[in-house]
Design brief:
The complex is a heterotrimer of chains A (224), B (249) and C (850). Chain A has 224 residues and is of the alpha/beta class. Chain A has one domain: Rossmann fold (3-Layer(aba) Sandwich), CATH 3.40.50.300. Chain A has a six-stranded mixed β-sheet. Chain A has a four-stranded antiparallel β-sheet with strand order 2-1-4-5, with helices on one face. Chain B is mostly beta strands and 249 residues long. The longest helix of chain B has 28 residues. Chain B starts with a helix and ends with a helix. By secondary structure, chain C is an alpha+beta fold. Chain C is built from 27 helices and 21 strands. In chain C, strands 12, 13, 14, 15, 16, 17, 18, 19, 20 and 21 form a ten-stranded mixed β-sheet that branches. Chain C has a nine-stranded mixed β-sheet with strand order 6-7-5-8-4-3-10-1-11, with helices on both faces. In chain C, helix 2 runs antiparallel to helix 11 and helix 23 packs across helix 25. The longest helix of chain C has 46 residues. The radius of gyration of chain C is 33 Å and the shape is elongated. The chains are: A alpha/beta (224), B mainly beta (249), C alpha+beta (850). Chains in contact: A-C, B-C. At the B-C interface, strand 6 of B face strand 3, helix 4 and helix 6 of C.
């Protein structure tokens, strides 16, 4: 499903930073992978590249058979829109929209009619057990609830690939557990390919496969 | 040409000649060197509102070559207003209006001849004298009008006599050769009907003492009654000038 | 569109005031544009309607200046073979003397005549308008009124009514009432009809007519007929189609149109900056949302189009608001323009309604929307280019790249070069003037960031002097956000420069006119036919002047007759004065020719031109002027050119004897009266009024009163200036509030840290105020500088294109001195809100940014 061939990423700025150094890896369809490593090891960068949010300085990324380097920016956006669900650490919900509207946003972007989009959104909010809070604004929800909304949003398009950047990083352990359970649950149900960045070893070990990064290079690839 | 056609053609020419002859005869009977009368005018409009005026009428000359002065005498507001007409045999007449309060005259422009004469049903053109030679005639037949047998003649103004009308029908009493009625048309529309009644013999000339003009479109009627009518009264030509009008007001 | 509802609406709702002010920016430009254009169009339309209604079916009209021509001409015209119908006309303007009715136009025609030329009908069908035409004609006081006028004044057939005419009060008897519609609707019903010969008698016109209306025979073309008539009558007669009357108006209304266009262009430019600013800020504030949307799959195009759509909607709202406001403004302006133009035709135009020109409205909407979209183009493009990764990580990023700076510098220098070139190569006239003007504006706008930076650097020490820490913070903040700051500064700078420009014009014209008044308008008293001494259709007999001269308090009386003549298609004022007498009393400001220009002109039989006419028509001393008179075309030499503000379109001064000889018109409009030494103006005025006031309609104005009146008119320019100051304040407020708000948002962390390490709230506030002061100061400096340049170009444009009036360049120091403290006050006030929000923001929230 996801292939990286010799991917490097350098950040230009006051100094040059080599975030990823000739990384190659393959993730099969339906795998649940955790991505670990110390701060600055390039985990987030890797995730962003796979998600098409950024371009590698060199190398090739293939998503579901499509070579990202070969496509235009619009095409890239399309890939992102149709194939990838993103769960951010800071939730990144639009504060002025209700839960329902937040979840249905990706669908609107795809051109779905309002009614259909809201139907699907309700479905997903039910799935994450927030069916009764659809009209609420994010500021009225707790951290855990917000993350659940974010997950619902990520799933709205039934994406084949789910990328999560420290999904429990901002939550207390109890809530975090719930979220992870939810993600695992969804993984089983939808058979999505999941790549999760985390600094929590426990979380990492609960996944089938763990890839460890350090200084932009893969140092470990454990399959359980 | 077939005999019938020839006959008809001749008849037509004869008819025309006849018609012209009739008109000529009629005119000859009217001949006088001058005429004077006092007139009493009554205008009734469509709503039957009545206005009355009086005027004096002086004419010198005859048959299309004459001078006419009409002076209003009543009511007081219009006293002194006069119309001066100089008729020509071969072209349109010249007309001037005199207003005493302004002490000046104004020419009635030729283009204005179809305008009603001061609120009456006569138009300025109707006040002109017609000479037989200014029209073409056709005899249409006979008809009874006001109980009398009449020739019905159609008259069409010649090119030298521009007119607001295209043609007219004239009923001439066969007996005395006087005009009893004239209908004036513009195309198919009847514009005016003038009836001449109360014929009296004055100095051997049959003169209508009542003339009634009906404006068909406006549904109004003007009646002119003449009083104290005389012919061949000696008149001086200089009475018909502008200066004379000025002097007399 | 969904995105609009989800991404735009919440933002707009939160920032309602800002959105409102932004819309106001667009609305202003559109308002000026629509207002002035519509006012113009309405007056013109109303006038044309009137002309058409009065002209009826007339194809051509023959006139001869304002004096009329002899009756005989009519017969000659009627005899022409090309002519179908020709009728004479006299028009007389009279005062109704009735409550609130103003003037009424009496149309005098030949009542015996053919009415096929006009669209009215006096005698028609059952409803005869005139009961008894004979009585009507017999009585010279007969008059026909419109039903509207009659009803308004409780008049009916038989009523007597008295009007104030040129020859004194006259009584009329109503003998007919016209039905509404067609002719009766001209002048809103303030029209009466009477017999033309009666009118000659009543108004003392002798044996002349004002005009002949005619139609041509079928098959004769308009030009053919016109040429034939001109050939027959010779010079001194104008033969025009009725619609050409409107052309005279058009010339003048073009003046207003040019002023309107310039003003609205400027206003739109300012609006452009406001929108640019607003959208830049909006994009900056919504960066994270945009990043999320991008991350979720919104394409660049979708983001860009969203902002463009927002700007288009903003523009549309602004345009519609501007149109509404403009139409209201138009009503007011229409009456002003109408009054001014009514002087030309005689009866004041009261425009019945506004002539809405769909073209103008559509153009206004188009321009408003286009301006908005153009202004929002760069921010929209920037929004589309937002990197989702960076956006989601919430940092402040704003800079103008080095390359952009270079591009700006180059282009700005290029414009400066163009302006300099135009200036050096005789750029005081024609297209070079406009090119120079636009180049200067363009250069200053492009160079704003560079200039701002330079000025901030220069002002930094000053700011630090006032408040060391806060001043430094403020200066740094301004330097770090050049684009945002310079957008605000540019908008304010343009507004202020306009204030300076208008102020300079007001000052200069005030000075010039006052100067002229002092030197030329120096008689003790003015005796005229109306309150403003300006009406011309009412006239005095010359004998009145002699009578006034006989009064014992009076020393000298100068008789003045002014009338409009057509010179090369423009209706200019011909002023006949006793030049030798006048020379003895005044010191004209001579621009070209001998110092005793009037004396010379009298001796030579030449004319003296007002210099605005000379400029506009490119005439010089020694040239020959061809002026149409009733006795033929006169060729008169130009003896001299002097400053003269008698008439906006230009004045030709001619000796009275010359006028009498060729125009054979002994009437006068005005008497300039000099009193004997020691006599007070009041005493003189009293004597004249007592002696003549009852029999003649006359008004006596003292010199003081006339000056006050002239000054009042000039003051209107000042009114415009103050209005512009108000606009500048509005613009500044919006710009500064916007700028500061974003600055605070961007620097939230920094400000939070400041407080966390011991900074007092007061200090944070003051830092914000200093920033605002910085913006204000820089704007004022740049605005005053640019204003000085713009004033130069404005004076040029007025001189060359608009009125030919030569005004001196006087920098409006008073206004400038007023602006500096005003802008500083405005800056401070604008900073209050943002300052508060800066300290209110919770520390934790500010720091919790990681």
């Amino acid at each position: 499903m996801i292939e990286l061939h010799d991917v490097s990423k350098t950040f230009e700025g006051k100094r040059q930073v080599l975030a990823l150094d000739h990384v190659s890896l393959q993730i099969a369809k339906g795998e649940m992978v955790s991505l670990v490593g110390p701060s600055g090891s390039g985990k987030s960068t890797l995730l962003n590249l796979i998600g098409g949010l950024d371009h590698p300085s060199s190398g090739e990324i293939v998503i579901d058979g499509e070579r990202l380097s070969a496509v235009s920016d619009d095409e890239l956006t399309r890939v992102r829109r149709d194939k990838i669900g993103f769960i951010f650490q800071f939730f990144n919900l639009l504060p002025t929209l209700s839960c329902l509207e937040n979840v249905s946003l990706p669908l609107h972007l795809r051109g779905w009619k309002k009614q259909k989009a809201h139907e699907r959104a309700r479905e997903l909010l039910d799935l994450v057990k927030l069916g009764k809070r659809v009209e609420h604004l994010p500021e009225e929800l707790s951290g855990g609830e917000r993350q659940r909304v974010a997950i619902a949003r990520a799933l709205s398009i039934y994406p084949p690939i789910l990328l999560a950047d420290e999904p429990t990083g901002n939550l207390d352990s109890h809530t975090g557990e719930d979220i992870l359970k939810l993600i695992r649950d969804l993984h089983e149900r939808l058979n999505a390919t999941i790549l999760m960045v985390t600094h929590d070893n426990g979380v990492a070990e609960s996944c089938q496969r763990t890839i460890r990064l350090r200084d932009g290079v893969i140092v470990e690839d454990i399959r359980r | 040409m077939s005999k019938l056609a020839l006959l008809l053609a001749t008849a037509a020419v004869a008819a025309a000649q006849d018609a012209r002859q009739i008109m000529q005869d009629m005119q000859n009977r009217q001949k006088s060197d001058s005429q004077r009368y006092q007139g009493w005018l009554r205008v009734a409009d469509a709503k039957n509102k009545i206005t009355e005026k009086r005027w004096t009428y002086d004419r010198i000359g005859t048959a299309g070559q004459s001078k006419v002065v009409i002076r209003f005498t009543e009511p007081a507001e219009v006293k002194g207003v006069a119309l001066r007409v100089v008729n020509h045999p071969d072209r349109a007449s010249d007309q001037w209006m005199w207003t005493p309060s302004l002490q000046r005259d104004r020419r009635i422009a030729f283009q204005d001849r179809s305008t009603r004469f001061f609120g009456t049903d006569f138009s300025f053109e109707d006040l002109e004298e017609r000479d037989v030679d200014q029209y073409d005639y056709k005899l249409l037949g006979s008809e009874r009008v006001a109980g009398k047998e009449c020739w019905k003649v159609e008259s069409r103004p010649k090119k030298t006599k521009p007119s607001q009308y295209t043609h007219g029908h004239i009923w001439v009493e066969k007996d005395r050769l006087v005009i009893l009625q004239i209908e004036s048309f513009k195309g198919d529309n009847l514009i005016r009907r003038i009836k001449y009644t109360d014929y009296q013999n004055v100095q051997k000339i049959w003169t209508p003492f009542q003339i009634e003009v009906e404006d068909i479109g406006r549904k109004s009627r003007t009646t002119l009654r003449t009083e104290k009518l005389e012919y061949n009264v000696p008149m001086k030509d200089d009475r018909f000038t502008l200066q004379a009008l000025r002097r007399e007001s | 569109m969904m995105l609009l509802r989800l991404l735009t609406l919440p933002y707009v709702r939160k920032h309602l005031l800002r959105t409102g002010l932004t819309i106001a920016g667009v609305a202003l430009g559109v308002l000026v544009f629509v207002g002035m254009r519509t006012a113009n169009d309405s007056v013109l339309y109303g006038f044309q309607q009137t002309v058409d209604r009065i002209a009826g079916k007339a194809q051509l009209q023959i006139t001869s200046g304002e004096g009329g021509f002899p009756e005989e001409v009519l017969e000659r015209v009627q005899a022409m073979e090309e002519i179908n119908i020709a009728v004479p006309v006299i028009e007389a303007q009279v005062k109704t003397g009735l409550q609130g009715q103003g003037n009424i136009l009496i149309l005098a025609v030949d009542m015996t005549g053919d009415r096929s030329l006009r669209s009215y009908d006096i005698e028609e069908g059952e409803d005869a308008v005139v009961d008894d035409p004979l009585v009507f004609l017999a009585q010279p006081d007969s008059i026909i009124l419109t039903r509207e006028f009659a009803q308004q004044n409780n008049l009916s057939v038989g009523s007597k009514v008295s009007f104030d005419t040129m020859v004194g009060p006259k009584s009329f008897t109503v003998r007919g009432i016209m039905k509404p519609g067609g002719l009766a609707s001209a002048f809103g019903g303030n029209l009466a009809v009477m017999d033309i010969y009666a009118a000659q008698h009543v108004f003392g016109r002798g044996r002349s007519f004002d005009r002949i209306d005619l139609t041509l025979k079928e098959g004769i073309a308009l030009d053919q007929g016109r040429q034939a008539i001109e050939k027959l009558l010779g010079a001194g007669y104008q033969v025009e189609a009725p619609s050409q009357r409107g052309k005279q108006f058009e010339t003048i209304s073009k003046l207003f149109a040019v002023a309107a266009s310039l003003n609205s262009l400027f206003a739109l430019l300012i609006g452009l900056f406001i929108i640019y600013n607003t959208f830049s800020i909006a994009v900056a504030q919504r960066r994270s949302e945009i990043g999320i949307a991008r991350a979720l799959g919104a394409t660049r195009a979708q983001i860009r189009n969203l902002f463009l759509l927002e700007s288009a909607l903003l523009g549309l709202t602004g345009s519609l608001t501007g149109i509404a406001g403009g139409l209201i403004m138009a009503k007011g302006m229409a009456s002003y323009i109408g009054q001014f133009l009514g002087d030309l035709y005689g009866v004041a135009q009261h425009t019945e309604g506004l002539a809405l020109n769909p073209q103008t409205l559509l153009l206004a909407v188009g321009v408003g929307v286009l301006t908005s979209m153009v202004a929002a183009w760069i921010p929209a493009r920037d929004a589309a280019r937002i990197d989702p990764v960076k956006a989601l990580h919430k940092g402040s990023y704003e800079s103008i790249t080095a390359s952009e700076n270079r591009w700006r510098l180059v282009t700005a220098t290029a414009f400066v070069g163009i302006a300099a070139f135009c200036l050096v190569t005789g750029g005081t006239s024609g297209p070079k003037l406009y090119v120079g003007y636009f180049s200067v504006v363009a250069a200053s706008v492009l160079a704003t960031p560079i200039l701002v930076r330079a000025l901030i650097l220069g002002l930094r020490p000053l700011l630090r002097l006032v408040l060391p820490v806060e001043g430094a913070l403020a200066a740094d903040s301004l330097m770090q956000s050049p684009r945002r700051t310079s957008a605000t500064v540019a908008a304010v700078m343009l507004s202020l420069s306009l204030v300076v420009g208008l102020g300079g014009i007001a000052d200069a014209s005030y000075a010039s006119i006052l100067d002229w008044v002092e030197s030329v308008v120096n008689p003790d008293l003015f005796v005229g036919t109306n309150e403003q001494i300006s009406e011309r259709s009412f006239r005095f007999p010359a004998s009145l002047g002699d009578e006034i001269r006989k009064l014992d308090l009076v020393d000298e009386v100068q008789t003045v007759r002014s009338t409009r003549v057509n010179y090369r298609g423009t209706p200019v004022m011909l002023v006949a004065i006793p030049m030798l007498q006048v020379q003895g009393r005044i010191k004209p400001k001579v621009v070209a020719g001998p110092a005793n220009v009037f004396e010379a002109a009298a001796k030579e039989g030449g004319v003296v031109l007002g210099d605005n006419l000379a400029l506009l028509q490119n005439l010089n001393v020694g040239d020959m002027m061809e002026i149409s008179s009733p006795s033929g075309v006169l060729r008169l030499p130009i003896t001299g050119i002097a400053i003269d503000y008698t008439d906006q379109l230009g004045a030709i001064l001619i000796d009275r004897s010359l006028y009498l000889k060729h125009w054979k018109d002994e009437t006068a409009n005005l008497f300039r009266v000099y009193l004997k030494k020691g006599v007070t103006p009041e005493a003189g005025k009293q004597q004249i009024l007592m002696r003549f006031g009852s029999q003649n309609r006359l008004f006596v104005m003292t010199n003081r009163q006339l000056r006050d009146y002239i000054v009042k008119v000039t003051d209107q320019w000042f009114g415009l200036t103050y209005m512009q100051i108000f606009v500048a304040v509005l613009v500044a407020t919006l710009g500064i509030v916007n700028s500061l708000t974003v600055s605070i948002t961007d620097r939230r962390r920094e400000l939070g840290v400041l407080q966390a390490v011991g900074g007092l709230r007061r200090q944070v506030r003051q830092a914000i105020w200093m920033e605002a002061a910085g913006i204000g100061l820089v704007s004022v400096i740049l605005g005053l500088a640019l204003g000085g340049l713009i004033l130069y170009y404005y004076l040029g444009i007025i001189r060359e294109d608009m009125a030919g009036i030569r005004l001196e360049y006087v920098y409006p120091v008073k206004i400038a001195l007023l602006l500096a403290p005003t802008m500083l006050a405005v800056s401070w006030l604008s900073a209050l809100g943002p300052g508060e929000s800066a300290v209110r923001a919770s520390l934790v929230e500010a720091l919790e940014y990681e």
